[in-house]
Amino acid sequence: MLSVSSAGTTSRQSRFPSDSAAGAGIKEAESRSRQRQQEAEVTPDQDLPQSHSTKNMKSARRGEAGDAGSDLSEQIKAATKENHIRAENTQLMLSYQKGHITTTQYKVLLCSLYEVYKALEEELDSNASHPAVAPIYFPQELARLDSLQRDLEHFFGPDWSGKVIVPAATHRYTQRLREIGKENPELLVAHAYTRYLGDLSGGQVLGKLTQKSLGLRDREGISFFSFPGVSSPNRFKQLYRSRMNSIELTERQRAAVLEEAVSAFEYNIQVFDDLQKMLSVTTETQRDASGFPSSPIMQFTAGVCVALVTVGTGIYFL
């Protein structure tokens, strides 16, 4: 079961500057970023998800070595290119992109997204003054938790927190976010970047596909895709990248952030795959459960089906 968290969002203040201030901030950040020397290749001392291949790790290190220039945002983009493609080509995401998303698929996706953003945003809040987090901390403009709560209530009702179920991959993802929030807050930069900028980019397309596929009116149930605090997504993304590129990191920290960005995509891929398996299992169970009404296993699985709304992911990012 999930618990609702207010996380103090009502008292958050906007940190999104005016057009002139944003332009000055961007120029200043870009000037600092150009002065950086190309980072040397180092091997970070952190573990990656077991599903990471040697190829993925080499990809991150190529970006870390500066193949994409000295800007952290460009290095992350280069390091995660292959992982990004893999995430977009999971079965769940392919169905989504084709407009074949069902209410059931969307609902289980919302459940996992809620857990992920709850962990991410609580850790960002706790580390708001950290030198690596402060430049990219925009709770008023980017926070997704309240929006996800509204969407879950729309589909599950006011007692939604007692009905949702998430796969093991989602728990692994949130555990990682909690871990780095306490031990290595600078690594939160990788997860915030891949999640939020993905939401502001491809996520906007997915929002329109969701509304059309599910026949939703007045954007009810798709608050997750709306950013009322961001008047210009493109301008905001430019500002966000410049702020991120201005973060001062040691060579080892930068290497670790690049590896963590690869990890972020891998965690998301695992979540998508687990959600697809969950949907496949519940679909199969719906065909057979009526023959085993007294079986505890069948009752539990049938309960999962009900929680997903008997017939019955969101993405992230990226």
Automatic annotation (TrEMBL):
Region (Disordered): 1-71
Gene Ontology biological process terms from the UniProt entry: heme catabolic process; heme oxidation; response to oxidative stress
Subcellular location: Endoplasmic reticulum
EC number: 1.14.14.18
Family matches, as Pfam families: Heme_oxygenase
Keyword Chaperone (UniProt): no
Biased composition (Basic and acidic residues): 27-39
Biased composition regions of type Polar residues, renumbered to the chain: 1-17, 48-57
PROSITE patterns: HEME_OXYGENASE
Signal peptide extent: none
GO cellular component, one term: endoplasmic reticulum
Any one GO molecular-function label of the UniProt entry: metal ion binding
TM spans (from-to): 297-317
Cell wall biogenesis/degradation is among the record's keywords: no
Keyword set, alphabetical order: Endoplasmic reticulum, Heme, Iron, Membrane, Metal-binding, Oxidoreductase, Transmembrane, Transmembrane helix
Superkingdom, natural source: Eukaryota
InterPro entries named among the record's database cross-references: Haem_Oase, Haem_Oase-like, Haem_Oase-like_multi-hlx, Haem_oxygenase_CS
Family: Belongs to the heme oxygenase family.
Protein name: heme oxygenase (biliverdin-producing)
Gene: hmox1a
